[in-house]
Write a structure and sequence with these properties.
This protein has 283 residues and is an alpha+beta fold. It has three domains: 102 residues, GIY-YIG endonuclease; 97 residues, no CATH class; 56 residues, no CATH class. It contains eight helices and twelve strands. The strands form four sheets. Strands 11-10-9-12 form a four-stranded antiparallel sheet, covered by helices on one side. A hairpin with a 6-residue loop joins strand 6 and strand 7. Helix 4 runs antiparallel to helix 8 and helix 5 crosses helix 7. The relative contact order is 0.12. It comes from Pseudoduganella armeniaca. This is Excinuclease cho. Keywords: DNA damage, DNA excision, DNA repair, Endonuclease, Excision nuclease, Hydrolase, Nuclease, SOS response. One of its GO terms (cellular component) is excinuclease repair complex. One of its GO terms (molecular function) is endonuclease activity.
């Protein structure tokens, strides 16, 4: 509970739990138990099935905000109980939320609900090519650019970059062509002539690399698994991650090698390379 003194000197309670009407079908006890620390929360229906899973650095505040949002009336009508699980910090909450959503597929979670088969653009071969995570280990492969849900999305991105940078549509694999013949972009003066030999293949390849550089997929920077250590109000947790795959808080045994998880990658790539996380490398 939080209090402050108002302008006329009265002590005012600012606990959000006292500023809303609890839906009658949701037990007040499960709301009173909500902590003001990081973690995940689970809205369950009458049968105990997860209908929504979220995360917050302040579980109590976030859950109560759901109960005060008219647009979420349908979710609240389905909810008969709310559970929570504390984590050591924000990163742990994000990782645990993504893991639970994949496992339980709640009906009101759409962003992370589907387990997606990702593809990427790979350089290092004759022409840029679209490759899939099921065939290539994205976490341990250099020369990958962009994470896409469909090959069409990957090709459209490459096409847009080619137009912006004046790349050759034949040398980028977007158009079939015979040696020495100008591509369509060259015919309308939007290609610098790699297809006709007026630009060297090396120079063109360097420009392709530069155009794709902002989309680079960062390989896993460690030789094996790591623990991300977080602390919050007496709770210390180690979140285990390997190859951009979340392993949980305890090291699993007898499981298949960790495979690249796009959601874990997006959660961790910036803070990991910014050096703002406490890391323990595991043997």
């Amino acid at each position: 509970m939080h209090t402050h003194v108002n302008s006329v000197g009265l002590l005012v309670c600012t606990d959000p739990a006292l500023n809303f009407s609890t839906p009658l079908h949701i037990p007040r006890a499960c709301l009173d138990a909500l902590p003001q620390q990081p973690g995940v929360y689970i809205f369950r229906d009458e049968a105990g099935v997860s209908v929504y899973i979220g995360n917050s650095v302040n579980i109590r505040q976030r859950v109560l905000s759901h109960l005060r949002t008219p647009e979420e009336a349908q979710l609240l009508a389905r909810t008969h109980h709310i559970e929570h699980e504390r984590t050591g910090g924000e990163i742990g909450a994000l990782l645990r939320e993504a893991q639970l959503i994949k496992a339980h597929q709640p009906v009101f979670n759409s962003k992370l609900r589907r387990i997606r088969e990702m593809c990427s653009i790979r350089l290092g071969v004759a022409l840029p090519e679209v490759v899939f995570a099921k065939d290539v280990d994205f976490g341990r492969t250099e020369g990958l650019f962009g994470l896409f849900q469909t090959p069409q999305a990957a090709r459209e991105t490459l096409r847009g970059l080619a137009q912006e940078a004046g790349l050759c549509s034949v040398m980028t694999g977007l158009e079939k062509g015979a040696p020495g013949r100008p591509c369509f972009a060259r015919q309308i003066r939007r290609c610098q002539g790699a297809c006709t030999g007026e630009e060297s293949a090396a120079d063109h390849a360097a420009r392709v690399q530069a155009a794709l550089a902002p989309l680079r997929v960062m390989p896993w920077p460690y030789p094996g698994p790591i623990a991300i250590v977080e602390k919050s109000d007496g709770l210390r947790q180690r979140q285990l991650v390997d190859n951009w795959c979340y392993l949980g808080t305890r090291r699993p045994r007898g499981k298949a090698p960790a495979r690249f998880d796009v959601d874990v990658y997006r959660i961790l790539v910036k803070p990991l390379f910014q050096g703002i996380l406490t890391i323990e490398q595991l043997g």
